[in-house]
Amino acid sequence: MIRILYIINLLVLAAGLISASTIEKVEKTGTITYMSSQNIYVKFENTAGITQGDTLFQRIDNKLLPAMIVKFISSKSVAGETVNGLDLKVDDKLIAVIEKIVPDVNEEKQSPIVTVPSTPEGEFKADLPPKNPAVKQKASLKGRFSIQSYSNISNSPHFADNQRWRYTFSLNAKNIGESNLSFSNYMSFAYRADQWSDMPNNFGRSLRIYDLALNYQFDETTSLWVGRHINFKISNISSVDGVQFEKGFDRNYVGVVAGSRPNFTDLGINLKLFEYGAFIGRDDSLGSGYMRNTLAVFEQTNDFKTDRRFIYFQHSNSILENTNVFVSSEMDLYKMISGIKKNDFQLTSIFASLQYSPITAVSFYLSYDARKNVIYYETFKNFIDSVFENETRQGFNLRLNIKPIRFLFVGLNGGYRFQKNDLKPARNFGGYITYSEVPLIEITPTISYSKIITSYIDGGVAGLRLSRNITDNIDLSVYYRNTQYKFNNSIASINQNSVSFDLSTILLNPVFLTLSYEGIFEKTSTAGRILLDLTTRF
User: Fold this and answer.
1) Span 496-508, pLDDT tens digits
2) Separation between Cα atoms, residue 469 and residue 387, nearest integer Å
3) Rounded to 10 degrees, what is the CA torsion of 99, 34, 83, 241?
4) Per-residue pLDDT reduced to its tens digit, 4-51
5) Which of these, 133, 147, 225, 262, is most buried using a 10 Å CB contact count?
C-alpha cells in the first residue's frame, strides 16, 4: 500500500510541475459573523477563488490550522462546518488559501503560502519556525455551552413518545493569569425526561467527561498534562486518566504516558485499567510542505494483568503541492488463548488516505481501511476462548468534487467493503449536484442520491434540499427524502418518505437558536422528531 502511495505521489508531482510557473498561492481573510449548531458563516470582501469543499484555516501561533470546510457560497460569504475541534467564535478571522493566476511571469510574486491538510490530528505545523522562548504567552479564555431538547413522536405502539435533554460544556483557559498553566474541559450530561427518577442510579451513564486536565508549559518544548486528556499525537489511544509528559529537541519530540483507561460503559475512572507507554516523533519541513512521524508503544492492563500490548505508528505529509497523505497502523504484540500467553506480532489495522486537488475546480479523496477487532484478553477473557479466527475487514472509499462552472458543484462518492465470510461485498455509491444561489430567488438547491448493496439489503435514498440565507443572521432549509430498502432474506421492505425543516438564527447575541423538525411517513405509521438547540460561546 505504501508503494502505491509513493507512485501516486510521483504522478501528482509531475502534474504540479506543469502548472508551477503560472499559479501561486495567496491568502484571503474573512470574519466569522454568525454561528449555528450546523454551520459557521464567514464574510469576505468577495469569495472569488473559493469553492465548495475548500478548507478555511485559523492562524494560531503563526501556524495555519484547518478550521472549517466550505459547504455553501455566495458572492461575499461562505457557510460550512468545523473540523478538528477548534473552538471558534464570532469575529474570529479565518483564512482561505486560493490559487491566483499570474498574468505576467516577470511581475514580482508574493511569497507562497503553505497549505495545511485537513487531517485527524488537527494540529500539524504549516511551517516550523525557530522557537523563541522569550515570547510571553497572553492569557485567553474560550468556552461553549449548549442545551438540546430532542423529542420523538410516533403513532406506532412499538415506540413510545419520549424527550431527551442534553447539556454540553467546554472551556479552554490558556496561560491563566499569563502564567504557564492552562486548563481544558469538555463534558456532556444527557437523560430521558421520563427516566429522571432513575437518575441517581444512572448518573455515571448520563454524565460523560471527555476532557478535564491541567497543562503546565515549562518552556516551548516541554509540557506536562495532568488529568483526563486526549493527546492528538497518539489520538488512537483515546482519553487517559493520569499524567502525560512531552519534551521536544529541535524537530524531534519524545513523551511518556501513565494512567488508566476510562470505563467502557460510563467513562468513569477505573484505576484497575492501568496503562502506560511512550512515544517518539519528528516534524520536518520539506520545501513548502511538512512531514510528521510518530511511533508509540503501549501496555494496557486490567487488574494489572496484561490486557493488550501494541505498537502505534502515524505518518502524515504534504510534501507534494496540493496533496495530503495520512497513514496510521496498529500492531499487536501479545496474545493469550485458553490461558496460554504468547508474544506475537500481528497487524491489527492500517488506514491510509490521499487528498489531492490538481486545480481549484477538482479535488478527490481516496482511503483504504483494513482492520481486525481489537481484543482485550483480560477484560473479555470468557469470550476470547471461543475466538479461533479474527477476520480482517477491508474497505475502500473514494470522493470526487468538481466545479464545472461557476456556482455549480458536483460530487461523486463510492465505497467497497468486504470480509472473508461475507456472502458478497458491501458496495455503496452516490452523488449530489448543487447550484449556489439561483438568480432572483437566491435559493440553493441540492439533489442527492445514494445506493447501498450488501448480502442482506438492497436500497437507495434520493433527496432534495433547498437552502436560503433569509438575512445575515437567519438560515432556512427544507429537505425531502425518499428511502427504499429491500431485505434479501425476507419479504419485508421499506418505502419511507420524510420531510424536514431547519431554522437557525441569533436569538439574543451571543445565544444562537436552531430549530429542526423531521417527519417520517410510511404506509402504516408516522413518526416525528423535533430538535431545539440553544448555544452560547464566550
Assistant:
1) 999 999 998 888 7
2) 55
3) 150
4) 333 333 333 333 333 333 334 577 888 887 776 567 888 887 777 787
5) 225
